[in-house]
Amino acid sequence: MSSWPFLFAAAIAMWLLLKGPAAKTSLFVQTVCRIAIVFFAYCGFLYLLKWNPFWKWMLSTGFENRNKAEGFLILVSTVVWLIATFRIAFPGLRFRALGARSVGPESRVARQETNRSSLSLKNIAIFHYFFYFFSRK
Q: Domain limits of the chain?
């Protein structure tokens, strides 16, 4: 089960193809290339999770139960893959939060002009949650 490097290489090759010859093709071909990139990366990650040397290293870093961690990582990667594929296939669709108002073009321009710090309270909370989850024993 060491085919994960080839799947990641295929994803990189598709990305290079998208940046090169496929850059001047139709939108449909570019969309198919993007979906293939996400699919190859997803499959490569799943094969990496089944690779025993990877788990020897992961268990040496503090993970106690391979089955729980592997199941969680498969779940997260599948959700990320589905969301990424959906966003690539339907780029114009956005989910509106409950009670959110429609944003007009004027406020979008003003929003782009403001420089916000890349480190926000939300990012710190997400980092803290994952750090706690993966470091507890």
A: 1-92
